[in-house]
UniProtKB/TrEMBL annotation:
Family: Belongs to the aldehyde dehydrogenase family.
Gene3D superfamilies assigned to the protein according to its UniProt record, in alphabetical order: Aldehyde Dehydrogenase, Chain A, domain 1 (3.40.605.10), Aldehyde Dehydrogenase, Chain A, domain 2 (3.40.309.10)
Organism, as annotated: Pirellula staleyi (strain ATCC 27377 / DSM 6068 / ICPB 4128)
Protein name as annotated: Aldehyde Dehydrogenase
InterPro entries, sorted: Ald_DH/histidinol_DH, Ald_DH_C, Ald_DH_N, Aldehyde_DH_dom, ALDH7A1-like
A GO MF term: aldehyde dehydrogenase (NAD+) activity
Length: 507
């Protein structure tokens, strides 16, 4: 399968390693450390990957600084034209890219295809946006004056991404950044290097045709490289997606140099099921949100807050559904749950279950590590006596905690009683309850849904969350503004010089 993807993407191996094949003018190599990337599905070695040195990173940033001048001088719709070409190439390579996502991140085929589709959608969205980077005209308080604001390219952007959306999160950032006139220096997760090499390869070819090779560069490595990227003063914005722990470190580093950071961090998402909910709809939504991507989405459902009058019925139907889920090789048809990404993820799954039991939790289904090659675990439901401390942290695995409630106020209080604030949902047929959940005294999350699950957001809306999730917004709506600098302009077309606020200053 890997050979298929490599051939289609023209990622030719050089000897035993893939290094060198993806090297472009933007990255001529110094001495490198090599890692072997294993498949989470069966532990087999996929490829040897040369990591970038700090010198490589410097070269990437140098190239992006150089490209910035050319990129910002182009009209935005012309930049949109280039992004259209990138989108078309991604379309052409959709199957091969999805295969790499499956092999490296362990996503089932349908979800991997969906992730690549998200990149294509972002490209389409950005093409349209390139003609709509609009500023405001504001009424001036002075006669014969015009007040307006306009948006300019910001500069080269550092983009740090997580393993679980190895290509889509890059696209959320890069597609917007490129139409906004900003080159991108990408530091992907070292857990998914092949996906990022393939995407970079595709994008670099398009950009080279427009004499813009440095507008997208790639630096492969871990936290050390990420920290170096975050500290570089030539990058006015660092967009970082990953754990809250990583976000704290990046935010502090960027703040020290008074740069901007856009943070997309951990979630701990809750779903309230009210007595009037359509239970079959709720059951299906819960299943996808809690079990999809083996619980490794930032928006995965982790906390089910269910009215006590329907708790037994809903939970027993979920337990039954969990028992019939097929776990296995992510590229096999009919499999819904692939592997966790690595052994550390299995360990944290087991630790959370042990902690939950200690805190009074009862495991209703699942709870075990499947001992076969690969990092497979059983999707798990645990009934909790209350929202105890294990429920306050994000465990990146398919564990769903269930707690009961009597009054909606109590449900909202439980829902908001965690440090994270990414995605939330309510299932109800009661308009008052739905509106209460969406009101200013309702869900405190960046995403609040009614009668759909917590995960699987569309790109048209702004994506992101509050509290420890970091406050950033990416993808649709007006998220593009983070990638530009706003300029307020006052133009006097009269013959006098009136001052604002009525100030007199005449000799
Ligand atoms: P991670 O924090 O381990 O790594 C994310 C990225 O940050 C990687 O590229 C890593 O190399 C880099 N990194 C780690 N420490 C760093 C540091 N100190 N300085 C600079 N860079 C550093 O996260 P992960 O395990 O790859 O991904 C899972 C996490 O990401 C979960 O918490 C999940 O909720 C979160 N996530 C959030 C969103 C969102 O949009 N809110 C989307 C996807 C994933």
């Amino acid at each position: 399968l890997l050979e298929q993807a490599v051939a289609a993407l023209e990622l030719r191996p050089s000897g035993a390693s893939y290094s060198g094949s993806f090297a472009r003018d933007w990255m001529q190599h110094a001495r490198r450390e090599t890692i072997v990337k294993h498949s989470p599905a069966d532990d087999s070695p996929l490829a040897a990957i040369s990591l970038s040195s700090l010198d490589d990173l410097q070269q990437s940033i140098d190239a992006s600084v150089e490209a910035f001048d050319r990129l910002r001088s182009m009209p935005a719709p012309a930049r949109g034209g280039i992004v259209r070409e990138i989108g078309n190439q991604l379309r052409l390579h959709k199957e091969s890219l999805a295969l790499l996502v499956t092999l490296e991140a362990g996503k089932i085929t349908s979800e991997a295809r969906g992730e690549v589709q998200e990149m294509i959608d972002m490209a389409d969205y950005a093409v349209g946006l390139s003609r709509q980077l609009c500023g405001l005209t504001i009424a001036s308080e002075r006669p014969d004056h015009r007040l307006l604001e306009q948006w300019h390219p910001l500069g080269p952007i550092g983009v740090i991404t997580a393993f679980n959306f190895p290509v889509a999160v890059w696209a959320w950032n890069a597609m917007l950044a490129l139409v906004c006139g900003d080159p991108v220096v990408w530091k992907p997760s070292p857990i998914t290097p092949l996906c990022s090499i393939a995407v970079q390869q595709i994008v670099a070819k398009v950009l080279a045709q427009h004499d813009l090779a440095g507008a997208s560069t790639l630096a492969l490595g871990g936290a050390d490289l990420g920290m170096k990227l975050a500290s570089d003063e030539r990058l006015p914005l660092i967009s970082a997606t990953g754990s809250t722990e990583m976000g704290r470190s990046v935010a502090a580093t960027v703040a020290m140099r008074l740069g901007r950071s856009l943070l997309e961090l951990g979630g701990n998402n809750g779903l309230v099921v009210a007595p009037s909910a359509t239970l079959d709809l709720a059951r299906r939504a819960i299943l996808f949100a809690a079990v999809g991507t083996a619980g490794q989405r930032c928006t995965s459902l982790r906390r089910l807050i269910v009215h006590r009058s329907i708790e037994a019925e809903l939970v027993s139907s979920l337990v039954e559904a969990y028992r019939s889920i097929r776990i296995g090789n992510p590229w096999e048809e009919g499999v819904l749950v692939g592997p966790l990404v690595n052994q550390a993820a299995v360990d944290s799954y087991l630790q959370a279950i042990e902690d939950a039991r200690r805190e009074g939790g009862e495991v209703l289904v699942g709870g075990s590590h499947l001992h076969r090659p690969g990092n497979y675990v059983e999707p798990t439901i645990i009934r909790m006596p209350a929202q105890t401390s294990v429920m306050l942290r994000e465990t990146f695995a398919p564990i769903l905690y269930v707690v009961g409630y009597e009054e909606l106020e109590e449900a909202i209080e439980i829902h908001n009683g965690v440090p994270q604030g990414l995605a939330s949902s309510i299932f109800t047929s009661d308009l008052r309850e739905a509106e209460r959940f969406l009101s200013s005294r309702g869900s405190d999350c960046g995403i609040a849904n009614v009668n759909i699950g917590t995960s699987g957001a569309e790109i048209g809306g702004a994506f992101g969350g509050e509290k420890e999730t970091g406050g950033g917004r990416e993808a649709g709506s007006d998220s593009w503004k983070a990638y530009m600098r706003r300029q307020t302009c006052t133009i006097n077309y009269g013959t006098t010089l009136p001052l604002a606020q009525g100030v007199e200053f005449d000799l």
